[in-house]
Specification:
It contains 3 helices and no strands. By secondary structure, the chain is mostly helical. The protein has a domain of 47 residues. The termini are far apart.
Amino acid sequence: MEAETRSLRHSLAQAQQLVVARERVIEGAHAQMVIANMHLKKTNEALYEKETRKTNVRAQLFAGRGQALSGDEFYARMKELDEEAAEKARVKQAKRDAKALRKDKKAELERRWKEIKEAHERNVAEWEAKCADLKAANVPKKRWPAKPKRDKKPTAEDLEEESEEEEEEAPEEEDDD
């Protein structure tokens, strides 16, 4: 019995050593993966930066080779680059203007919608007062006025139609003078 117990203890000790060794191997593998991941992130950042780097406009002048600064090609390329920059600025300003216009239209639509809702609330309050008076006078419900309906929410197309109508009316008024 003692021999068997010693044998089992010896087997248990060996199993524990194997478990400890396996844990150390796994820990080493995890450390290698962490280092590889850090390297991968650094490489990806460098690649992304290289791909998205803004090119210096003036560096494009020479295209990697020497050039006389007084040559006609140099001046033509400078003028071309300046025109491209001006066009980009015009496009950017046009986008800003369009965005501001959309924002103004949206604000106008919201203002009109708020006015419509307030007017409807006033109309409903008046209707409720009339109904209360009619109820007090014992008038049958079928003779009561219908509940007022709210107008539809204005849309951008409505604004465009109104502006077109105003433009059409404006020349007519000028002709009368």
